[in-house]
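Running co-folding for manganese (II) ion.
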Amino acid sequence: MSVSVRFVHASDLHLDSPLRGLARYEGAPVEAIRGATRLALEQIVELCIGEDAQLLLIAGDVYDGDWKDYSTGLFFAGQMSRLRHAGIRVVMLRGNHDASSQITRHLRLPDNVVELSTKKPVTHVFEDIGVAVHGQGFATRVVDQDLAANYPAAVAGLFNIGLLHTSVSGRPGHEPYAPCSIETLKNLAYDYFALGHVHQREVLSEKPWVVFSGNPQGRHMAETGAKGVTLVQTEEQRVISVEHRDTDVVRFEQLKVEVSSVRAAEEVPERVLLALEEVSAAAQGRTVAVRLILSGRTVAHGALTSDPQRWEQELRSVANDVGGDGLWIEKISFRTQGQYDRERLAQRDDAIGQLVRSLTSLHSDEQRLDSLLQEFTSLRLPAEVREMASISTPDDLRAVLGDVQEMLLARLLDHAEDA
Ligand SMILES: [Mn+2]
């Protein structure tokens, strides 16, 4: 029996998942993003081979949903064959996105791939490498019960791995499927729990190891930063190392650039240039999609917000200089604030003073907020405007009051000073 095992834990491949909303943006690297989930799987396969892994574990959501045609399944089967040729075994199970009930087409996978049952928890033993893998996949999209509660006992003398698609005790942004407590997982006394479903990498416990590997490739602007899989090394049935390895080919980033210290708006592109150079270097040749957020109290606020289109073009051109086709600005948010002294402004007895006082008192005036809300909801706004700012309660209005005040003051004061 071999005394050391090397395995790779992956989850949530979401092969061929559609481009959510990104295609409508000008200049979006649509082809790179569309192919990214497949290329990330190729990266996983290459990592397994390059690292001499004996086993690949996939904790659910290989597919994003039912296949449009067979090419998605054929691609996966092809990659599994590459592993077979390298003598690497695969254990996988189904998650909510690729639950048995969700996928109508089927392809036979090569014989190095074991798919765990969706009907009951099972144990698959690899005698030659001394490993037992326990788990149960999703039969239907919605699984409310605690699947881990019925997982089999650890097998003495083997390295025990639990494979599970779960939200554990709940994670923001993820459906609460197959909920379980971390205590249940620990009490099973396995050596490593390979979890899937949550796309953000997280180590829940080190004794024993309970890990979300996160997805191997971000799928949209909310899945930011390096994405990949977890590489685990064991010796004498004990974990000796757990390492994250990047497998993403397109990276999504939200980049905040603080511009409070610029002396004029003309200095903003230089600041952005430096920040983009860092992002680009960290991505090591990958395509990067960046949401740029400009923030800070700055003298440049008025100039930036009175002509956002001009600055947007300048900043896009900066990005082009830094990264060419490989660096794409998805959107620029101007969240700067002016350096106005509101208390002093409120004391002025002209229209500006009145405006500041009125907006300040509106914040706590339920009656005026209510009537404003009625006026607002009766406006016939284009659908895309309504989507951008959903305002249906007095609190929604309150939340935008600060921005409104900034915008009005920037236009009124900075223009007055220009004149
Ligand atoms: Mn899932």
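Result summary
The mean pLDDT is 92.
The CA atoms of residues 63 and 212 lie 18 Å apart.
Job closed.
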